[in-house]
Amino acid sequence: MLEDLYYKICAEVQVPINVYVMQVLEDAGKDTGDAVIKLTGNDRLKEVKRLNDNDLLAVSKILNGNESVKGLDLRYNDITDQGARHLAGLLQDNVAIQSLNLMCNNIEAEGAEHIAKSLHLNKTLKSLRLTGNKIGNKGAMHFASMLQINNNLEELDCSDCDLDTQSLIAFSIVLNSNKHIRVINLSRPLLYSHQEETTIHMARMLVVNQTLRELHLGKHEMTDTGVERLCEALHSNKSLRYLDLRCNKITRDGAKFLAEVLKQGSPLEILDLSANRIEDDGAIHLSEAIVLPRCKLKALSIPYNNIGTLGLVTITEVMKISSSLSHIYIWGNKLEESVCVAFTKLMRSGRLLEMHTDVSPYMVDGHVCLAELFHGLHRHFYWTPSYGEDEDIASNSALALSANSDDLLILPAPLD
Question: What span, in angstroms and rounded, lies between the C-alpha atoms of 142 and 146?
């Protein structure tokens, strides 16, 4: 049993026993199939003692040679570069772990180098999440180099990692030739130029790369000019299904460029424009695309875009005609009573399900209002809920939509 082995190894390496680790290992030992060990430091439902580097040394030794554990979730712990070194050793020897979540630890450039170099030889890891670790430009360059060698990793999340222009351009260049990465998150870099060089390189990459499914470019300070360059590339891209442009500087003109892409039958199914400023005109441009039969968009997220009555009501009208768009998120815009009435009718007719939007109707003194629901494309990105499931579909609809899309689409096998 894993917990017995943990006792033994802690004694060997002289590491104090972490009760939280013991509890999780006991629960994992009860699973008869493939296990995912969740040693999350932000679990609100258990008494948690966050893991440090010594704890990780013991855990790494336990899993070395173990073939039943397929996933390791270590988010929100106190793992530093030394702990990353222990993980690197595990990744070199373990032949079973397919997903590794290191979100919001204290790993920096040195630890990133250890992990990246271990993936030169690793043949099993499919998903790696480094969100919130300040690996910086130096650490990110090691992962960009790794992608030139590794042909097995499919998902890489380097958001909130203090990347800069050099490392973003390096990723875009590597993705010209890497045909195995399906999902990459490069949100919130530290950019000091207003010339959008990184967006231009990403656009060039999208012309060449026909296997990437998800691209996250949130908080890139992207303007309409950058969106225009992206859209020029998207006209020829046949693989991208999920485009995340939240928290940028996109206005109605950028929305118009995106609408033109959708009108041409783009494979895009999920579009996140949260916290931009597309306003009524931008919403109308998108509506003109959504109403067309060739538009494949399933989910549109436009909270906090300064959209008024005209734009929001137009969206409800086109949803009555078009059957493709099933998820719409609008909270944070100008929800006047006419908007509330329009969305209430749409929901009561069954065209829009409450779990597919972030608003819920209610009455006050004979007037219809909308309340906010904690629903969205990825609302549980940074935290674990205190009740319910960690990956609840209503709060993380992008996960379900992406999974369904993967089931329906068979991609051509990449050429090595």
Answer: 6
